[in-house]
Amino acid sequence: MIKELKPALLMLLVMTVLTGGAYPALVTGLAQLLFPDQVGGSLLKVQGKTVGSALVGQPFSDPRYFWGRPSATSPMPYHAAASSGSNQGPLNPALEEAVKQRIALFKGSDPQQTAPIPVELVTASASGLDPHISPAAAAWQLPRVARARGLSERAVANLVARHTEERTFGVLGEPRVNVLALNLALEQHELTP
Amino acid sequence: MTANGYLQIALYVSALLLLAWPLGLYMARIYDHQLPVGVRWLAPVERGIYRLCGIRPEYGMSWTRYAFALLMFNLLGLLAVYVLQQVQAWLPLNPQGLANVSPDSAFNTAVSFASNTNWQGYGGETTMSYLTQMLGLTVQNFVSAASGMAVLVALMRGFTRRESQHVGNFWTDMTRSTLYILLPLSLILSLMLVGQGVVQSFEPYRTVQLVQPVEFDQPVLNPDGQPLQDAAGQPVREKKIATEQLIALGPAASQVAIKQLGTNGGGFFNVNSAHPLENPTPLSNWLEMLSILLIPAALCFTFGRFVKDDRQGVAILAAMTIVFVALLALCVGAEQSGNPLFQRLGLDTAASDQAPGGNMEGKETRFGIVNSALWATATTAASNGSVNAMHDSFTPLGGLAPMWLIQLGEVIFGGVGSGLYGMIVFALVGVFVSGLMIGRTPEYLGKKVEAFEMKMASTAILIPCLAVLLGTALAVVSEAGRAGVANPGVHGFSEILYAFSSAGNNNGSAFAGLSANTPFYNLLLAMAMLLARYGVILPVLAIAGSLAAKKSIPPSAGTLPTHTPLFVALLIGTVIVVGALTFLPALALGPIVEHVQMITGH
Fold it and tell me: How far apart are CA B410 and CA B597, in angstroms?
């Protein structure tokens, strides 16, 4: 066994240089050349100011904004340096309690909206940073946002449609709306209707 | 399930099988050292590595020597990862100033990555410096995978060699796996992932202004960092307002690529591939998911080519695919049916082109139900263990599918190398049992299967079962074990059973509610991982050595053909019977009881 000690030690060093040093460095170099925006987190800029990442959700609670999915990160929701899901089991009474509270919050935000709430709007995402809601979840919130902003539902619906992404190649994943991008577009729309 | 759901699954399975074929043949050439033109320029690098390390590549090793080399190499790798975590605070590439990791957690992670388990007891962005992720975790992602592939190659040589004392050279098998297979594939995949938005940067975490400031409350800490309690013993909380968001970055893409390709699974970030910067789009998700099963599936074709009968590899791949698709159907079905609680509360849970429906707790919108369940099944069929949804929040049956796939011994595709050598062990048991039943000579691929092989095969099958059941039992009866449970009722038992199934079969996924980052779990789970990895590798190498020393006998009328549908059924039967007999009682106490409680509304 001792005969293999020397090759083992040297091989570990060589492999560390190759796969732990050269490989990540090469990927970083090539990636920065090919995809300069993506390497640093796909940041969104509005008038030169960084307002977030196109891929990471932010918390919203003002009726004038569309709201994203409940986030289980702590201490603040959408804590992008400490991702986490709720990990609540399906029969956990805490899950039932949390979902009931969220339902009450949404119903309270728009008493006139009588359609059933889409399930993902009141269940916590896996990462706590989910940037998307489903088109149905956007449609459910649309009348509230339009009213709060004094916009026509049609104007808001147009914006939602423009920020709805279909399945990739028409097949992969799920149709979705990026909440942060949509809310930024709403702000923009009020400035320049 | 919607028509699109069926389409996504069909597309995934067919792309997997189509890509596995050429890759399998490519790998067969690499291990045979018939380098294809495209990678011949790497040959001088390979020779340079041998010269640097003082290795004679043509030197044949006995199975014991081969095992010693592997053990020594993995042991040193384990020590390196442990030491790195213990000193990371004083080393460069730590822009967030993360502290040294606690000794028990560092030991657990070191064992976990050296044994290709990649159980993630730590929190990624809150624990590991960029340097530790690269020099420690990424390196082991490569070489632990390559070690598993090397063991498989040694076992395949057991079938092809006649009256030989040697099973190959560990150093060359490991080096070729890394240099010609894992590195090129990882390079391609990591760049594709960056293109989709996975981060790859050495910059510190980025602060951005929130569009709407958020109010939250957090526990007040005393000067020792412990939560402050009021007179009634309740934690004191204070209101805070955040105006900024701190976004974690890092060299993630390079690590995520090998994490998937090497069936490792330990995430760069805490929530693994559910994190939008680790898996941002449906396309990145599809590519990562494909990479989970690609090499394990391709190795079946490599095996067929190696033993000069492609049908042998196809038969094993067929058995794997059938079990995979069956349990996938269970998982997707259960998650799409969802949690009756949500219907009771009047929510809209129907799947459509406007909403995913089903059980969306712990899932991401861009993946919905189908891709979350597909990933959960793939990652546990393979010993990958990365997640894009929180398995702890799955419905009882949706969680049973991944848990049972792990418990089957990680042979349904399984880990790179380890999945197929595990499946070959089951094949040996299968031909032996059927040989006894129908009075034919137990032989597999021209080699007689005798008492020694059967003893080793039984050992390799029983040791992981022992690690799982004994570990679970210990945790359930001890105070420290029960303290980690997050969910009340039988689900808490499922969390413990899942943890030991995962560690005891080198998978690494979790019902993540379990607080496993405690000395009790860190040490006990590390023991399970070591036992499962090396308690299987050693008997498998012993089988390789024993088979290589045997004569090869030509097939006769008394030979049971091992490429027919009958054999496929026999192989599935062997895997299922062992898996069901061993684990049904435990599963009945966990997910099955929970399912009954759920549908009866208790």
Answer: 29
Fill in the DSSP letter of residue B239. E
Closest residue on chain A to B491 (Cα) = A89
Of A63, A50, A43, nearest to A183 (Cα)?
A63
CB contact under 8 Å between B208 and A50, yes or no, is: yes
Residues 6+ apart with CB under 8 A from B521: B108, B121, B475, B480, B481, B484, B499, B514, B515
- The verdict on a CB contact (< 8 Å) between B72 and A168 is no
pLDDT tens digits for B340-377? 999 999 999 999 999 999 999 999 999 999 999 999 99
CA distance B548 to B66: 13
Write phi, then psi, for A133 (nearest 5 degrees): -130, 165
Put simply, the answer to whether A126 touches B388 (Cβ < 8 Å) is yes
Contact in structure between B136 and B83 (CB atoms under 8 Å): no
Q: What tokens appear for B438 in the block?
A: 């129908």
Distance to chain A for B242, nearest Cα, Å: 8
* Cis, bond preceding A116 (omega within 30 deg of 0): no
CB atoms within 10 A of CB B511: 30
B585, two tokens? 């009682």
- The maximal CA–CA distance of chain B, rounded, in angstroms, is 84
Cα-to-chain-centroid distance, residue B127: 21
B195 by Cβ neighbours in 10 Å (0-12 / 13-18 / 19+) ranks as middle
Interface of B with A in 254-313 (CB under 8 A): 254-255, 257-258, 269-271, 274-277, 280-283, 285-286
The whole-number average pLDDT for the span A82-96 is 95
Q: Which segments of chain B have a pLDDT < 70?
A: 602
Residues in A closer than 8 angstroms to B68, CB to CB, are: 1, 4
**Distance from C-alpha of B272 to C-alpha of B256, rounded to nearest angstrom:** 9
Q: How confident is the model at residue A2 (pLDDT cuts 50, 70, 90)?
A: confident
A96 vs chain B: nearest CA distance in angstroms?
7
Phi/psi at B505 (5° precision) = -130, 15
Half-sphere exposure of B358 (CA within 13 A, CB side): 32
**Contact assessment for residue B313 and residue B305, using Cβ atoms and an 8 Å cutoff:** yes
Residue A141 token pair:
């919130």
| Strand (E) or helix (H) holding B424 | helix B418-438
Tokens of B471: 């570990």
User: Between the CA of residue B218 and those of A71, B486, B566, what are the distances in Å?
Assistant: 15, 20, 61
Q: Which of B275, B40, B252 is nearest to B141 (CA)?
A: B252
Find residues 474-503 of chain B whose CB sits inside 8 Å of chain A: 486-489, 491, 494
Best CA proximity match to B140, nearest among B506, B431, B558, B433? B506
Name the residue among B212, B253, B274 with its Cβ closest to that of A65: B212
DSSP secondary structure string for all residues of A16-54: IIIIIIIHHHHHHHHHHHH-HHHHTT-EEEETTEEEEET
B563 CA to chain A: closest CA distance, Å?
A: 35
Distance between A157 CA and the closest CA of chain B, angstroms: 14
- Say what the ipTM of the complex is: 0.96
Interfacial B residues in 97-156 facing A (CB < 8 Å)? 123-126, 134-136, 138-139, 141-143
In chain A, where the domains are located: 1-40, 42-191
Q: Residue B98 phi/psi, 5° resolution?
A: -70, 145
Contact B506, B263 (CB under 8 A): no
Contacts of residue A116 in chain B, CB cutoff 8 Å?
346-348
Q: Which of residues 28-57 of B touch A (CB under 8 A)?
A: 49, 52-55
pLDDT in tens, B477-486: 999 999 999 9
